[in-house]
Amino acid sequence: MKRKIVFTDDGSTTIHLETWNEHYHSKHGAIREAYHVFIKNGLFHLPFSEITILEMGFGTGLNALITYLEAEKNRLKINYVGMEAFPVTKEELDQLNFATELGETTLTSVFAEMHATPWEQSVTLSNFFSLHKQKQDFLSLRGHHLFNLVYFDAFGPRVQPELWTEEVFEKTFRVLKDSGVLVTYSAKGSVRRAMQNVGFTVERLPGPPGKREMLRATKNLKINS
After folding, report:
1. What phi, psi does 96 have (nearest 5°)?
2. Distances (CA, A) of 163 to 27, 47, 54, 58, 70
3. What is the pLDDT of residues 50-109, one digit of tens each?
4. How much helix, strand and coil, in percent to the nearest 5, is found in the chain?
């Protein structure tokens, strides 16, 4: 599949899959989207100082990098698990400009270390952040009551509908702790219904630039939406 590095509207880069006409991050701003969906409406929504996070779709590592940055700034202890079946190549990673655009020069080495760490091992990157990368697909997800928060960042339902099914969301529901939260950039009706059918309470929230809405799903917590 043909891939190339492109700039998004906020100056940050992403990867464009030309065959699918799909981007790893929003063309309206990769960093802006990540902060809006996963940090503002996910990480900062939780009232905890120690948080276990599962990212479904580790991809470029942008979401992990900004979570690391916010953990350091806010003294949050984060245990981060990133699932990815098809890791990004080193050649592609070397062309991404996330650390520069975030204005934190120290993040360059952190970003490199995140991608250099071995798969299937837990690595402590700072006093506030540990990372465990898992090279596997979403259907292999197992376990119960493990995570406070899920970043659901798969490629969109248009190109990979099999990743947005009740089967996948049921597995995700099981691995979340009670009152755990899933956030995603998608607001597609079929996605919302699939989440609701497995037991999530789902909120429609204002979306990042370029999207009208996004979804936040909560396990076993009644929310008026």
Report:
1. -85, 140
2. 21, 29, 15, 14, 28
3. 999 999 999 999 999 999 999 999 999 999 999 999 999 999 999 999 999 999 889 999
4. 30, 30, 40
- Whether 167 contacts 177, CB under 8 Å: no
| Alpha-helix residue ranges (DSSP H) falling in 84-214 | 90-93, 98-102, 107-116, 166-175, 189-197
Location of structure tokens 């880069």? 13
Domains of the chain by start residue, with CATH: 34-91+105-219 (3.40.50.150)
Residue written as token pair 């936040």: 216
Q: DSSP strand E in 3-76: where?
A: 3-7, 13-17, 22-23, 50-56
Cβ–Cβ < 8 Å for 26, 33: yes
User: Which residues contact residue 146 at a Cβ distance below 8 angstroms, ignoring those fewer than 6 apart?
Assistant: 52, 54, 175, 176, 177
Over residues 176-193, the pLDDT tens digits come to: 999 999 999 999 999 999
Say how far apart CA 215 and CA 225 lie, in whole Å: 11
* Count of beta carbons in the 10 Å neighbourhood of residue 142: 9
Predicted confidence at residue 225, as pLDDT, reads: 42
| Token pair listed for 56 | 């479904």
Residues whose CB is less than 8 angstroms from the CB of residue 220 and which lie 6 or more positions away in sequence, other chains included: 178, 179, 199
